[in-house]
Amino acid sequence: MPTLTASGLPPSDAKAVVRAVGGILGPAAGDIRLAFALDHGRGTVRLVDLIATRIDGSGVKLSANADGSFVATRITANLRRQTHFVRGELDGQSFYSSAVAAGVSDVLIGPFVNAFRYDFDMQREVAQGDVFEAGFEQRVSADGDPVGAPVLVYASLATAGKSRALYRYRASGSADAEWFDSSGRSSRKSLMRTPVEAARISSGFGMRGHPILGFVKMHKGTDFAAPTGTPIYAAGDAVVTFAGPKGPNGNFVRLHHANGWDTLYLHMNRIAAGLMPGVRVAQGQQIGEVGTTGRSTGPHLHYEVHVDGQPVDPMSIEVGGSRTLSGVALKQFRSLRDHVDAARVASPR
Asked: Is residue 46 part of a domain?
């Protein structure tokens, strides 16, 4: 309204324009671009027409009638999708610093790491010189301005030991998108190898000198060091069999999985609200936070996997369970994969 009145439009007319525009655009926040024409004839100023648009191109056009009323016409969004690819090498410090240096947006780094959470231990299996590539879609307006956040659609990682290339695809009827390899096999396994965000392994499975008790003792799991409050996730779909304080274990959660395995999470700072025996949890659901409760020298998650009642090395077991697309879903996936691959070939290198 101030823009209109500053241009000479009477306040009453400016208010009418604002009401007409607001009735279509609504109260959503964000910049609105105005383009309007005024008639300064006969000693008065009146609006001839006005176009108000948001960054995505959606908006409204007002045209004045002879009686001073306005006809409002809705303008639909005019967006297109652009696919970009960023390639880089690990710098020996962290994937985060390497990705940022290569030009990967902050909002894509978490999804990239999560895409490989079943295939790579990002602390032990990657090294300086390993090559990564991220492909993402960005919606842009007719003027080329970005609209909304970019979405990761392709991720590849090549190390000395193995390489993986994954494509993001949401099958019809599925609530969420998943990551699939080029043949249509899901990267999702029955268990996540690393059930905590951005953690480093501070102690592995096997015999070790206990840091508190002072003698050599079997370490039945893997310790992931991370700041207090870091989210801890269920490694797989499961039923809670214990959730609460338990002596040296501190705040402790035990999950029982459909294949008969159990996963244990020790020393939590906090257990998620509502978590109790009998409650079902989904893979990737937050079940607590990293802490240092119980017999602990610092904030970390002690994570165990038990098979047939016996602890096994969580980092070495085969965590199978991938599914492969078929039928119509596989055909649709191949079309998406070919589209992404064509964009990769055309992308500047």
From this structure: yes
